[in-house]
Amino acid sequence: EKKGLPKSKNRSHDRLQQYSYWHSITPLTLIMPPSQQNALDKQQKQFERKLARQKQLEAMEAAAGGSVRAIVPSSNDTMRSSSGSKGGPGSGRKQMWDENDDSEYGTPPAPQMFGSTPPPNPEGRHMLVASKDSSSSSSNKSSDEGGGGFLGNMFGRLGASGRNPEDNDYNHNMMQSDAGSLEHMDDEFLEEDVELNGRRKHRRNKSTVKKASHAVSGRLEGFQVWFKSTWNTHCSSRRMSVCFMSTLLIVIFLLFVDDVVEIYQNRRSGGAPEGAASSGKKSVKTDMVRFNQARSVILISRFSSEKDLDAADTPQNKALNWIVTWDPASLPTDHDMLVQRYALAVFFFSTYDASEQVEEHEDTQDPNELVQQGKGWTNTENWMTAKGICMWAGISCMPHLRNGVEEYQYNENNAVMFFNLTNNNIKGTIPHEIAALEDLTTFDLSKNHLHGSVPFELGNLKNAVDIYLVANQLTGSIPSSLGSCVKLRNLYMGSNQITGHIPLELMALQELRALGLDDNKLAGTLPNSIANLKKLMVLYLDGNDFSGTIPHLLAALTDLIDLRLRKNSFIGNIPAQFASMSKLELLYLDNNLLSGSIPDIFSKLGRLGELQLYKNLLTGSLPESLGLLDDLKVLYLDSNLLTGSIPPSFGNLDDLTTFYAYKNKLTGPIPSTIALMEDLRDLRLYENKLSGALPTEIGSCFKLATLYLEDNAFTGPLPEQMGKLEKLANVRIYGNQFTGTVPDSVCKLTQQYQTGVLEFFAADCTESGSITCTCCNKCF
Length: 780
Hints:
The structure is a single chain. The chain has 780 residues and is of the alpha/beta class. The chain has 17 helices and 35 strands. The protein has a 17-stranded mixed beta sheet, with no helix packed on it. It is elongated, with a radius of gyration of 47 Å. The protein starts with 6 loop residues before the first helix and ends with a strand.
C-alpha cells in the first residue's frame, strides 16, 4: 500500500519477486553457505539497480532524440529525488536509487504499464521499453560498458529456460500465459521460501536436500540453451578474452558440479553416516535411496537399534554403510538374506576391526583393505567379498542338493546353519545382531579373545542346538533367555569370567545333553531343579565358587556320563544315591570340603574310568568295591584323612595306570596282588604310615615309571626283582628304614649305563643312613 498498489496486488507483487528469485538463482548459490548467499544477494541487488539506472539514462536520452517510446509512471508512483522533483525527462539523472539502500523502500516500485493493470515484472524494477530496432544496441552497450556483461548475466539473470530476461516482450508474454496458474504457484513458492529458511536452521532435513538437488538439476538442464544464447549475444563483440576466460570457468564448474552437489547433500542431510561416502584411499557415492531402504529393513527386523545404526563408528553403522556402498554383491534391499548378510558384517566389524594389530587402519571403510593387510583373524577366506555368505570361512548354510548330494557350502546367500570360527584370533565382542541368524543350529567361537557379556539376544536362536563359547574372556552373567532355546543340546561356556548364578530358566531345557560352565566365577548353590535335565550326559561345574551340599537329586540324572564338580566349596558327604548313575565314567569331586567316608557304591558303577576325590576331608577306609572297577584307569585319593590298609582287591584293577594315595594315614603293607596291575605306570604312596617289606611281585609291573614311597615305615632290603623294571625313571624311597645295599640290577637302570632310563634315584644313603647306594642321585 505504501508503494501505491492495492493490498492484494502488492502481495502478488511480492510473490512474483519470489518467483523471479527462484528462477534466477544459479547452481552456485544453492551450495553456498548462508553467509556467502547473503553477500551474493546483496551484490545481485546492487547490479540490478545499476542496470536499471543505466537503462533509464539511455532510454531518456534516446527519448529526447525521438527514437524511444517512454512509459511514464502514474501519479501514484513516487521516486526519491535529491531535489524532491517528480520523474520526467529533465530530471531523470536525479531519480536514481541508492545502491547500498537495503531498507523497506530500497527497491524501486513497479510502474503501471499497458493500461491500468500492472503486468507481472520478474525483476521488480522501473522499466522503459525500447522499440525493437534499438533493443539490441542497448543490450550490447550494457555488455561493453560493464553494466552486467557476460558474468553478470550468468550469475544474476539466468532464467528458467535459458532466455535473456531483458527481452521484455518475452517476459510479458510468458507472464500472461502463466497468469491463469499464478495463484496456485504463489502458495507453492511461498512454501519453498519458508523451506529455504528451514534449511538454514535444520541442516539435516533430508527432504529439503532432495528439493535443493532437484533445483540444481533443473538449472543445469537449461544451461546449454542459455549458454548458446548468451555467447551469441555477448561474445560477438570485441571483448573475446573476457568471454574465453568466462567460458573456461564455466567448464571447470561443470566438471566438479556433481562433487559439489554431493558435498552439499552430505552437509545438509546428515542421512549418510560419517565417512559413508569416502575413505582414506577411495571416494564412493552413497545411494541415499538404497541407504534409507536398507536402514528401514534393518530397523523393522529389530535386530539393531536406531541409536546403534546412526551413531558414527559403531559396528552397526559400518555394516550398514558396507551393505549400501561397499558390498560388491549389492543385494537388493528386499532380498531375504540381506539382514543375515548385514548381521555377519556387524560381527566382522565388532571383532576384526577391534584387533590391536589393525588399529592403524581403523579409519578404513572398505573391509577388503583390512583383510588384505593379513592381520586380524587367522582365516578370513571369502569374508566381505562378492561371494555368497555360504562360502565364507566358518559359515555353512541350509543343505543344497547338487547331483543328489547335500552341500552346506556353496556360492549363494542362504540361511546360515553353522557358524564355526574356533581358534581364529577373534577379538572384540559378540554383537546382539547374531540373533538375526534365525536358522542357526551351531554357534562355535571357542578359543578366541572375545570379551564383554554374552548377548541376551542369543536366546532368540530358537533352532540352536550347539553353543560353544569356551576359552574366551567373556564376563557378565549367563543370559536367562537361553532357557528359550528349547532345542539346545550342548551349551559350553567354560574358561571365561562369567559371574552370578545358574539361571533357573536353564533347568527347562529338556533336550540338553551337555552343560559346561567350568572355570568361571559362578557362585551359589546347585538348584534341586537340575534333576529336570533328564537327558543330561555331561555336567561341568568345576572351577567355580559353588557352595552348599551336593544335591542328592543329582542322582536322578541316570544318563550322566561325565560329572565334574571339582574346585568348588561343596561340603557334606558324597551322596550314596550316586549308585544309580550306572553310566558314569568320569567322577571329579576333588578340591572341595567334602567329609565323611567314601560310600561303598562302586559295584554299581562298573563303567567308571576315572575317580578323583583328592584334596578333601574324607575319612575312613578304602572301600573294597573299588577293586571291582575293571575299567578304572585313574584313581586319585590323595590329600585326605583316609585310614586303614590298601585292600588286596585292588590287584584286580588291571587297567589302572595311575594310583595316588599319598598324604593320608594308610597303614599296613603293599599287597602282593600289586603284581596283577600290569598297566600301572605311576604309583605314589608317600607320607603315609605304610610298613613292611616291598613285595617282590612289584617286579611284575613292567610299565612302572614312577615309584614314590618316601616318608613311610618300610623295612628290609630292596628286592632284586626291581631290576626288571626297565622303564623306571623316578624312584624316591628315603624316609624309610630300608637296609642293605641297593642291588646292582637296580643300579644298572640308571643313566650311568647306556641302556638305563632311571633319571632320579633318592634314598637314605648318607653315612648315617640305613642303606648303601652307589648309583643314587641324592642321599638323605
